[in-house]
Amino acid sequence: MAEEITIDASYSKQQKYEVLLPQIAALIAPESDLIANLANVAAALKEVFGWWWVGFYLVKANELVLAPFQGPIACTRIKYGQGVCGTAWKEGKSLLVPDVEKFKGHIACSSKSVAEIVVPIFDKQKQVIAVLDVDSEQFDVLDDTDVHDLEIITTYLSLKF
Question: Pick from 94, 103, 91: which is nearest to 145 by CA?
Answer without folding.
Answer: 94
